[in-house]
Design goal:
globular, alpha/beta, 559 residues, 24 strands, Rossmann fold, 20% strand, single chain, Cobalt-precorrin-4 Transmethylase, domain 1, Methyltransferase, Cobalt-precorrin-4 Transmethylase, Domain 2
């Protein structure tokens, strides 16, 4: 007997043969036109349950952030039938290959998410895959998504209302062009950048006035979005003048809107006019440290790129930390002060090593230097008693820290777990307030490994539009592991000390945060970008990103 086979028996005890694997489940999921923020709540729920994600690479990039870390991925492509020897000679086209891949995955009992660009209900190939599942008895569901023909005009500042008709230029017949050309309806045309001029000519030939306004948008709803405004008669010259048409690299999908709704695009363009739209911003922090900062940058239209410049390692001599944690449990301290997320992590790991949890903080007052550190404590199960009401720094913490009072404070000692390179500001201030401080090295900071060669080249070659420096050490370490940023890159610093270090390394500081917080720094960069855009528009110049000013940037850029 094949040891891999499973045999079941009926109630009478006779063999019933190998058990068929449980049928899986397929979710045909609309990934929308490109912005991951347009995924529905139901889509996010389905992605969290998925065992396998199937779809084109660009669509998987949109959805994979909501899936489990161990989820499998597969991209359908033409070729031999899955499960067959290529020598058998059966070759499948792309649609058939996708159907085979979906069904073969589901038949193993897995929960499959078939990710479709836009809305699966409007995709003919997805409909064929659904029919195949239905005929095979594989359960499936459909999670609608935002169709590109609806989402892209909204992001381009072109509201659709009234009589609207949708045209697929790739399949439109002469009769179709004749009907829509003779009408006065607003047209939403799914086309490509290479063929939009011929579609415009078809409409003029069918009766539309040559001066009818239109917009053409590529990479809609993403930070690569670009929109051209013209007329049916001038769109070809407009694309040529702006050098929009690339060298042959395959068709570039575009959405064209023809008619009256395009007239107010200048006033209604809310997406492409974000202050940092399309800016590649280098954030010298780990993904964990940069999470909220990167989210803030995205809200301004930027594309954050995290590059850790510091790695965290345990202290060389852990005994001091071990004694302090034991003292925490036995009542040695009145306060514990956390000055970083890494300090919270170090104490938490030591707690887990001893089998302790947040209950060990009972009776101890807890301070956090800022909101991010406070959030890390809350996730640990500890609500801080003190967070600075003003500046989120050691100085701000000291402003609110109470002086030692022997009447109300039974214990006069503070536990301060921190980095080996931390400054003495907090220790000196606490001592001045009458407290005894156990200043303990909870972790060491060392220079991180260099980033990939592509990132290093982008840093030195002007591929980034801006870099945010949050400390002097991030300046020194970034230059040390990746080189000095190009002179077109906007340099933003969190405070005077960091700016001084940047200047000592030959960098021009363009932006300074009004207060020493990462969120104030990001906001200051956004204000810089907004002022830059306003100045360009007032001068009648095109709005460009800083990286587009470097020699050869336009020639190498891609839509």
């Amino acid at each position: 007997m094949n040891p891999a086979a499973v045999v079941t028996t009926n109630p009478a005890g006779t063999a019933a043969g190998p058990a068929a694997p449980a049928a899986g489940h397929v979710t045909f999921l609309g990934a929308g036109p490109g912005d991951p923020g347009l995924l529905t709540l139901r889509a996010v729920e389905a992605l969290g349950l998925a065992d396998v994600l199937i779809g084109p690479g660009d669509v998987l990039d949109v959805v994979r952030g909501h899936a489990r870390a161990d989820v499998g991925t597969a991209e359908p492509s033409p070729g031999a039938s899955p499960g067959r020897d290529p020598q058998d000679g059966e070759v499948l086209d792309a649609a058939a290959a996708a159907t085979q891949l979906v069904m073969s995955s589901a038949r193993t009992g897995k929960r499959v998410v078939r990710a479709i660009a836009g809305d699966p209900g409007l995709d003919a190939s997805a409909a064929e895959e659904m029919l195949a599942c239905a005929h095979a008895g594989i359960p499936f569901e459909v999670v609608p998504g935002v169709a590109a023909a609806l989402g892209v005009p909204a992001y381009a500042g072109v509201p659709l209302s009234g009589d609207v008709r949708f045209v697929d230029a790739a399949t439109a017949s002469d009769q179709c062009w004749g009907e829509v050309g003779a009408s006065s309806a607003t047209l939403v045309v799914s086309t490509t950048l290479q063929t939009v001029a011929s579609a415009a000519a078809e409409l003029v030939a069918a009766g539309r006035k040559p001066d009818t306004a239109l917009t053409v948008t590529v990479a809609g709803t993403t930070t690569r979005q670009r929109t051209w405004s013209a007329t049916l008669a001038t769109i070809a010259a407009e694309l040529k003048a702006t050098k929009a048409l690339p060298t042959p690299e395959g068709p570039i999908a575009a959405i064209a809107v023809v008619g009256e709704p395009t007239a107010h695009r200048r006033q209604l363009s809310w997406f492409e006019t974000k202050p940092l739209f399309g800016w590649r911003v280098l954030v010298p922090r780990t993904k964990e440290q940069a999470a909220s900062l990167s989210d803030q940058l995205r809200s301004y239209g930027a594309v954050p790129h995290e590059v850790p410049t510091i790695a965290v390692e345990p202290p060389r001599t852990p005994q001091q930390m071990e004694r302090a944690v034991k003292g925490l449990v036995t009542g040695r301290y009145e306060w514990i002060a956390f000055t970083s997320v890494n300090a919270v992590k170090a104490v938490r790991e030591k707690f887990e090593e001893y089998g302790l949890d947040a209950r060990a903080f009972a009776g101890i007052k807890v301070a956090a230097v800022g909101e991010q550190t406070a959030q890390a404590l809350v996730e640990f199960g500890v609500k801080p008693d003190l967070v600075p009401s003003g500046e989120q720094s050691a100085a701000g913490l000291l402003e609110d820290w109470p002086p030692y009072d022997p009447v109300f404070d039974p214990i006069d000692r503070v536990f301060l777990p921190r980095a080996d390179i931390a400054t003495e500001t907090l220790v000196a201030g606490l001592v001045e307030l009458g407290w005894e401080v156990d200043d303990v090295t909870a972790y060491r900071t060392v220079r991180a490994s260099p980033p990939p060669a592509e990132t290093r080249e982008a840093i030195k070659g002007g591929g980034f539009d801006a870099v945010l420096f949050t400390s002097s050490s991030t300046v020194r370490n970034l230059v040390g592991i990746a080189g000095k940023p190009h002179n077109v890159t906007v340099i933003a610093c969190i405070g005077p000390a960091t700016a001084k270090t940047a200047e000592e390394h030959g960098l021009r500081v363009d932006v300074m945060a009004p207060e020493p917080s990462v969120h104030a720094l990001a906001q200051a960069l956004a204000e810089f970008g907004r002022a830059r855009r306003t100045a360009a528009e007032a001068a009648g110049d095109p709005v460009t990103r800083p990286s587009e000013r470097r020699p050869g940037a336009r020639r190498r850029s891609r839509v």
